[in-house]
Structures are given as C-alpha cells and as structure tokens.
C-alpha cells in the first residue's frame, strides 16, 4: 500500500507551475482549476492542454461562471478518470484507502483550518474550498495537500479541526463532497495532448456564449456595485472574486492555452490577455467606486474588454471554422 499518490513531493521544496508565477496578472484563479494545474504538473502532464474549456465562460446574471475543467476533458487528454467517492464512514479512512491504491481524493474542506490561507481565511472565516490530498497520516495528525497555487502541509490542531476530530457526539456527521481521481500508469505523450487539446478547443468554441457576456455584465455592473456599496466592505471581496476575478483569470488562462497550442493564435491570445488586463484594472476602479460611492463610469471601463472578446471570437471563428 502506498502512503502518497506522488511519493517524491515535499511541501518544503515544492515549486509551483509557471501558470502560478507571481508575475502573472492572476497568479491564482479558483481553487478547483488551480489545484488541477498543480496536480497535472506533478503527474508529468501539461496543464496548459486542458484550458480550452475557458471559452464557454458566461455571465450568469449575478456572477460569471465559476470555471472548472470538465471531467471528460481530463479523461480524453490525460487518461485520468474522476468520479464521486461515497463517504459513509470516517473520512480519513476513505482517503487513506484511496491513497494506498494510488488515487487522489479531492475534498471540499473548511479554509478556516488551512494555514496556506493565512491572512484571508485561516483562523478568521469559515469557507468552502477544494483540496487534493497527497499524503495523510492520522497518527502524526499530518496532511500534505494541493490547494490553490501550491502544495502544502498542515498538522496538529489544524488537522483535528479540518476533519472535525473533536466534534461532539451529537454533531452532524462530517460528510464532505469528495471526488477521487484514477491515474493511468504514465501520462500520454505531448503529441496526444496537443492533438486532443486542438479538438477540444474547437468543441468548446462551438459551445461559447451566443452573446458577448462582458457586454451583458457591463449593462448591470454599475447597479450591482451600488448595492455592493451598501454592504459591509468585506462583501466587496466576495463580489469581485465572483465577477472580475473569475473572468479575468479565465481569459488569462485562455491566452496561455492559445500560446501553448502554437497554432497561429497570436492575435487571439493577445485579445484574451486584454480581457484579463481590463478585469484587473477595473477591480481597482471598483474599490475606489465603492469607497467614493461614484458608479457612473464603471460600465464604460469595460469597453476595451468587450471589444477584445468580440475580436477573440471572430479570430477563432476564422481559424477554427
């Protein structure tokens, strides 16, 4: 039985993938995609290959799509099969069983007990986030896990809190939503990943929103922000995360995907990065607007991103067909 899915990984010596480099506009995106970037890199595959799905992000009326890699894409690209794991007993036992079989468990956990979220949630705020557990030692009360843009360790009281070890007998059972990933013996070669990535890009292009989602967002953005300004300032961060950060990070990743494909998508990659750049800029404008309670210029601030989305889709339409 194995004690780790990737035995050679050490949180102390771990180097995140280049998609999480500090100089990027959005060094972290969302917990699910960030986690898969690091897991795929640790497996020896190219995480850039999976990012064609970013084309389908839409504005959902109050937020942008929380973009997640489709599980069927992971199987086509890398031979990785992901499905739900039933939790009917102690969570730690289920996870240990799967690690012993070389399978990675992805669990929705409470960031309150995760020291890598220090300054944001750790010890301050309870929040749902997804982690992937590489090594679990219940005796030593230690956990090595992928989360956001890195690979970390927690132990002791944080371990107990995360798994609700000291919960009262009357507390409801701890039953987090859990997936588990079955890996092939080795990753497919680069040629396979590039071929399938190109096919998936075309597939997701056909599934893109019928109307420009940034234009739809701009039409309600100032009104939404007026309402945000009436809430405690901490709510600003939740709103910004689910709107500007979601589409900004999404399109920066799409730009990296198009660069990696190396198929003549230079202009389209630049258009994607323009959307990301505008999202970053407008996030700062949003903070000022909330503080000053002036909202009338916010819709026009998104115009460059709206135009870039149109150019991006027109360019891809000409090249993909």
Give a topology summary:
Blueprint lengths: L30 H13 L27 H8 L2 E4 L6 H10 L3 E7 L17 E10 L4 E6 L2 E6 L1 H6 L15 E5 L7 H17 L6 H17 L4 H28 L4 H27 L5 H4 L1 H18 L1
Antiparallel strand pairs: 1-6, 2-3, 2-6, 3-4, 4-5
What does this structure look like?
This protein is an alpha+beta fold. It has two domains: 11-44 and 81-182, no CATH class; 190-320. The protein has ten helices and six strands, in the order H-H-E-H-E-E-E-E-H-E-H-H-H-H-H-H. The protein has helices at 31-43, 71-78, 91-100, 157-162, 190-206, 213-229, 234-261, 266-292, 298-301, 303-320, and strands at residues 81-84, 104-110, 128-137, 142-147, 150-155, 178-182. The protein has a six-stranded antiparallel beta sheet with strand order 1-6-2-3-4-5. The mean pLDDT is 94.
In brief:
Helix content is 46%, strand content 12%. By secondary structure, the chain is α+β, with helices and mostly antiparallel strands.
